[in-house]
Design brief:
Strand content: 15-25%
Largest sheet: 5 strands, parallel
Radius of gyration: 18 Å
Number of strands: 9
Shape: globular
Low-confidence stretches: 136-170
Length: about 250
């Protein structure tokens, strides 16, 4: 390779008091790098972006969802990062995509990806804490549509799992209407096993709030990269959240 970037900046290194650094070991890294996945073009920041800058583990998931773009004209991409899901859906035919993330840098790259794929008219970016966004009131529509809530500084990407509070979906439902597809892909909610119960409770609140943004017959995709929350724990959390949403009846998560 012409360029080699070394990232030693995971939160676990700080806990172990190991050296935290980012450096270019070989070549001249000139900044944002173009990549293509499933025929869609993105710009990534390998040196300053989240973790490696891109998450190829979702490549097949994005490909599968792209097949549903014709059936999901309105898409809400929560914790969108640089728009891997949202821009892909717009590229393959979804008509209106709202990407929500707390990182201004990530949303700038999301906007660039939308422009590179000629779907800027279909993609709206919103800078906000996701739980705050899901509980936003009608009077915040103008701020959200222009891509930021000026007062929001919360970082929902905290790997220490510091996620608290409750949320309703009044904002998403009242301000944007409901969506045919809601994607929920939060960051790691804690690398320590002791964080698992807290993370499960957060998934319950998050899925409950996000499900209310789904239109009747809509789809909800929930992903987790929290190591100590297993598949069964996540499915159970989702099922509880969906039962709350439907008043005790509910639909099974799968």
């Amino acid at each position: 390779p012409e360029v080699v970037v070394l990232r030693q900046d995971a939160s676990g290194r700080r806990k172990e008091r190991a050296v935290v650094q980012r450096e270019v070991l070989k070549g001249n890294y000139k900044g944002q790098t173009e990549l293509r996945e499933n025929g869609v073009t993105f710009m990534v920041d390998l040196l300053h972006g989240q973790k490696t800058g891109w998450f190829y583990d979702h490549r097949d998931h994005r490909s599968k969802l792209a097949e549903l773009a014709g059936q999901t004209p309105r898409v809400l991409d929560l914790y969108s990062y640089i728009g891997g899901f949202g821009v892909t859906m717009a590229h393959f035919g979804s008509e209106e995509v709202v990407c929500v993330d707390s990182s201004e840098l990530a949303l700038e790259l999301c906007d660039r990806a939308a422009a590179l794929n000629n779907v800027s008219d279909r993609v709206t970016t919103v800078r906000a804490d996701v739980m705050e966004f899901l509980g936003a009131g009608p009077n915040r529509r103008a701020e959200a549509r222009r891509g930021k809530f000026p007062e929001e500084e919360a970082d929902e990407g905290d790997e220490d799992g510091d996620q608290e509070g409750t949320a309703t979906t009044q904002g998403a439902v009242a301000d944007y209407g409901q969506f045919d597809l809601v994607i929920v892909d939060p960051p790691n909610l804690g690398s320590d096993r002791t964080h698992a119960p807290k993370a499960v409770r957060f998934y319950e609140r998050l899925v409950h709030a996000a499900s209310k943004a789904c239109a009747p017959g809509g789809l909800l995709l929930v992903a987790s990269c929290t190591q100590h929350v297993g598949e069964n724990d996540l499915l159970s959390a989702c099922n509880r959240a969906l039962r709350w949403k439907d008043g005790g009846g509910g639909r099974a998560a799968r």
